[in-house]
Amino acid sequence: MESKKEPTFNAQAFLDSAGVARTIVEYQPAEVIFRQGDPCKSVMYIQRGGVKLSVLSKTGKEAVVAMLGPGDFFGEGCLAGQAVRMRGANATESSTILLVNKAEMGRLLHQQHALSDRFIAHMLARNIRIEEDLIDQLFNSSEKRLARTLLLLARYAKHDKPVRAVPPLSQATLAEMVGTTRSRVNFFMKKFQRLGFIDYADGLKVNNSLLTVVLHD
């Protein structure tokens, strides 16, 4: 007898339901969602678009720590007792963000086990990504780090398409994410384009074949 497969929990549909107290906000490209040091009062969910998370040093230097897309949560630090935002968030393109205040999100996680499982899976994946980022910075060349960053931005392995578009990003932002200079990013991007790993026709697109750069010793 074939076992019935459990239906995948649809966080989008659940958070859109009438029983959930939430606010939906539209953001334009580069618009500030929250700043580092702002009060930390809500968890956010990306319905459409993209979000850049960054940290600003006391000297004003910015470091990009994550690029998020549809289906991702962010701002969850309030659930762990953070009083203020430890990083800033900006929309990378026209975006629709759903905001659920701390108390409501806490109630939902306690009462809705499917949402709780989905949220825990998100947090575990985020922690794994942070560990991988650290290893990447410690042991890989800037060329490999850039290739991995582009594949992650294209949400490699989450889609069947061999070529995926990447949200609009400047080479300066890519340099911040990779931890190198803009000139080095420009050099490697030209190399990737020459080898057919990326394409600039109608926006930046990344081919899955770019993975060979990451796997090459």
What does this structure look like?
- The chain has seven helices and eleven strands.
- It has 217 residues and is an alpha+beta fold.
- The strands form three sheets. A four-stranded antiparallel sheet has the order 1-8-3-6. The protein has a four-stranded antiparallel sheet with strand order 2-7-4-5. A three-stranded antiparallel sheet has the order 9-11-10.
- The longest helix has 27 residues, at 113-139.
Computed structural class: alpha+beta
Strand content of the residues, in percent?
Answer: 15-25%
The gyration radius over C-alpha positions equals: 19 Å
Instruction: Report mean pLDDT, rounded to a whole number.
Output: 86
Count of folded domains: 2
Q: Identify the CATH class of the largest domain.
A: Mainly Beta
Give a summary of the structure in a few sentences.
This protein is α+β, with helices and mostly antiparallel strands and 217 residues long. It contains seven helices and eleven strands. It has a four-stranded antiparallel beta sheet with strand order 1-8-3-6.
Topology diagram in text:
Layout: H1 11-16, E1 23-27, E2 32-34, E3 42-48, E4 51-56, E5 62-68, E6 73-74, E7 88-91, E8 95-101, H2 102-111, H3 113-139, H4 142-153, E9 163-165, H5 171-178, H6 182-194, E10 198-199, E11 205-207, H7 211-215
Antiparallel strand pairs: 1-8, 2-7, 3-6, 3-8, 4-5, 4-7, 9-11, 10-11
